[in-house]
Specification:
The chain has about 100 residues and is an alpha+beta fold. The protein has a single domain, classed as Phenol Hydroxylase P2 Protein, CATH 3.90.56.10. The chain is about 20% helix and about 35% strand. It is built from two helices and seven strands, in the order βαβββαβββ. The strands form two sheets. Strands 2-3-1-5 form a four-stranded antiparallel beta sheet, covered by helices on one side. The chain is globular, with a radius of gyration of 13 Å. This is Toluene-4-monooxygenase system protein D. Belongs to the TmoD/XamoD family. It comes from Thermomicrobium roseum (strain ATCC 27502 / DSM 5159 / P-2). Pfam families: MmoB_DmpM.
């Protein structure tokens, strides 16, 4: 079987480092909402990439549980200067994904 570079297919948010509570909550939620062994977290001091191969899901209910307070996914927007992949947004979850399997 040929080696596939998983990092070329990673999708998910890139969060700015000035929102530490939110970043920690997204990290925890990532492991709950996605297969834990597929979550990739890269802390680059000024920003944090939180990704998974091909599909990354973040649920509002999980963020509420982790933060212990009401939470709307729109709160992520100021903390997220970038993301990898495409994004589908609903009131209850955000899903980052690849447009095509061969991208």
């Amino acid at each position: 079987m040929p080696h596939v570079d998983r990092t070329s297919h990673l999708v998910g948010p890139v969060l700015g480092g000035v929102f530490p509570e939110l970043i920690e909550a997204v990290k925890e939620a990532a492991y709950r909402d996605n297969p834990p062994d597929e979550v990739v977290i890269e802390d680059r001091d000024g920003y944090v990439r939180i990704h998974a191969p091909r599909v990354f899901r973040l649920r509002r209910s999980t963020m509420r549980e982790v933060l212990g307070r009401p939470f709307e996914l729109a709160e992520l927007e100021p903390a997220m200067p970038a993301f990898a992949g495409r994004i589908k947004q609903t009131r209850d979850e955000w899903i980052w994904y690849l447009e095509h399997a061969d991208n």
